[in-house]
User: Which sequence fits this backbone?
């Protein structure tokens, strides 16, 4: 029986715009506004609810699998940080 393994990431940060507080995230499954996510990396570890999401500079309510979207984050993230469901 496998041990209680780490949850699988559902996305990754591909870019971060510090002056805007916006992370570009690529998700491996659909994610909607209101979802609670955990951002985890070498120096990153925090949870946050998704309050806004943009695709192609337009507000969207959800991201499709494989789509890269911008999400507003309250803390710094870095390229390569993983995203989990919180």
Assistant:
């Amino acid at each position: 029986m496998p041990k209680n393994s780490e949850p699988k990431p559902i996305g990754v940060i591909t870019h971060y715009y510090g002056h805007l507080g916006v992370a570009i995230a690529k998700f491996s499954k659909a994610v909607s506004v209101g979802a609670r996510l955990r951002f985890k990396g070498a120096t990153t570890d925090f949870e946050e609810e998704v309050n806004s999401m943009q695709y192609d500079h337009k507000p969207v309510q959800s991201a499709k699998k494989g789509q890269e979207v911008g999400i507003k984050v309250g803390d710094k993230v870095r390229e390569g940080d993983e995203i989990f469901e919180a």
Q: What stands out?
A: Residues 28 and 65 are 5 Å apart (CA to CA). The chain has no helices and ten strands. The beta strands are 11-17, 22-27, 31-32, 36-40, 45-49, 53-55, 58-59, 62-63, 68-72, 82-85. The first strand starts at residue 11 and ends at 17.
